[in-house]
Amino acid sequence: MESTEVESDILRRVRTLLRELDGHHPSCQHDRGMLRWTLHKKIDQNPSSSSILVRILVKELERAERGDYRHYIIPLLHTLMYTLIKAPCISDELCSRVYDFCKKLLTLPKPFCTIGLDYAVRLKMERAAPGMLYQRMVISEQSLKSNPYPYQEKIFIFADPELLSEAICNALVTDTQAAQLSQSPRVCMCYVIIHAMQAALGEGCDLSGLRMSLQDMPMSEVEHWFQQVVAAVECAGSEASVDREQHVERLEKIYCALLGSLPPGDSPLGRLQDIPLPNPNISFHLWKEDDQLWKELVLFIRPLSQSCEPDRLSQDMDNFEIQDIISECECCEQTRFSVLSTDSGIERDLPPAAEEPFAPCSADTEQSRLQRKGGIKKKPSPLESMAFLQTGCNGPGAKPAAKAQKRMGVPAKPPAPLQRLHTARVVLLGDDRLLGRLAQAYHSLRKRETRRVFLTPRLNLQFYYIPVVTGQPSAPTAATHAAAGPEELCEVAGYLGRADPWYESNINTLCHMIPKLATMPSSPSKHLVTDLFITDVIAYYVRMGAQPVCFQVYAVKVFFNDPALEPAEDVFLTELCAQVQESISHRELNLTKKKTTLEGPGIDLAVTYKKVVVSERAKEVSASLRSTGLVMKAIPADEAEDLLCLNVNVTEIIKINNLSGRSFSAVANRLKTRDIKIRSTEQRPFTVCLDKDSRRTYRNVISVEVSPCLEPSYCLQKTRTMKSSVHEAEDVGLVKYMPKSLLLPINTFAGIIQ
Known about the structure:
By secondary structure, the chain is of the alpha+beta class. The protein is built from 27 helices and 15 strands. One of its GO terms (biological process) is G protein-coupled receptor signaling pathway. GO terms for molecular function: 1-phosphatidylinositol-3-kinase regulator activity.
């Protein structure tokens, strides 16, 4: 009877979740976005009901496929996989049903086939080695040392202190720190051991006795048994010849060795118990420096001494130690193009000064004289120069070892390819103005990596975005967009929500919820909600959101009315706004009034752009008009529109002559383009604001050029190709296969559903 009631309650919760996806929001608006969270918390309180939830979700998935309710599939599948990872034990029969359903998704278009393939691969490993997904997640998120699975992950939360209030920042810092308090490496290792035993042995596992045995062990023994369990699980998951029964036998031996002669525990056998999934390693950063993102990523790859906390770069670090790491990369950037040699490597091409006729010529000297002196025989191939570091950055002893091998006549072994063992998950908390800063930082990072590769071969970089609007932005940033609402400042989040309903349900609902929770008066209930809810939603997002939506980054070149000033180059992601600048001098003011009386308000502009047509053929259009301003939008209002296109809204002033006299009317013109040039023909300046951020405003502008920002590595290789090719206008060689435009990927749960 009790099982029937539990099943009915879970089914009701799942159906409520699906109704929310259809747009039928719950009666209590504050429950929006919490349905998934409350469902998983309900299962955590009663771990034995996880199999019931998995069975219900499988039935709902099969029903959605038969009824062609495709918008249900990805949310249900993510909910199912998250339940399966956290579940203490799931039968092979249930895993098999989920696996078969994921294989069916391979016949559907993206993103269904992509997500189905990913989950099918994971489920195949989970069936062979139960608990493998949980184990890998804990090892990577907690950076536990393990040779069979040496991957590490870290979550970096970035927020702009000028966009979020101090109360919100302090609350987020407190929550992220509190989430890490009870998670020592020892505790996480014990979680992995206990979960692996329960997942394999099921209800016959004496968890109470296992906990007592691990609790009394010294740290060295806990680490030993942790390595034994990890090796057994990874071996079973990677070897096709090992079946589930052999894996269970291996773990039974470890289980018996762990318990030894210990008396049985107090908890009765035959009942599954919850093994918590530890919160991931999260660090919170206030974005104050332009290159702060790059510094944090470098320190994640090459951490400082253990006495320093790399998460608090601007406060606790030794500046000299920071500079030692960062200057190494910056020094290599400056000297990269000065290490090429003109030596051909042929003995007869050596100049006379290079020979030593009066020196005694022993066999060793002759051998070393005939060998190359460590010079570069030819220019490195583009793939090598863009994918690997020079040997000098791999360690102080790498280069002399190669020389010694050559002197001895032994051919030097090529360096092993670098593996991306680190994953940085960067979560942005804010609005479109923060994403504009991210586009700047990402463009700077890509340029830095083109000059000197360091992060690219080592680091898997993922971006996530959680919109947060406080309603009371700080004074400097509120000047330009004082009347802008949350929708205007969160256009990217609105687009992602329309493209991915699960993102809308789980992430966009945090836009106003985080400020409310942060400003709640301190109370036990407040800490209960914030510590669990905010941290859990962020963890769920970064764990399950693996489908990127790529946004085009646009390059802008700004010319000023002062010829002595160099043009400024910048990038933007969401919007460029140009407005007529107020006249400063008395003479300019009189001329402006006279011109306004005759021609109307605004300034004369010459606009040249490439019109976007269906055939993708470039059609250049030129026009002259009088305008009071224009806005270029890079984020379309509809997810069906082209994401790699600019929507330019120009406010044109039309002069009307009638019997009553001359009058003027404003007409909104809209055009689609990817490249556009705007110039003030009467030399009157205007202002340009990027990404709705008044801190990024250019004044006294007379001309602007906007085009898709090119990938820096493409530009470098294009320059090299043009030096040796007569086909300057065409992409030849490697350039044809390189990404041309710089795209900023932001992860969601489904990407863009076709």
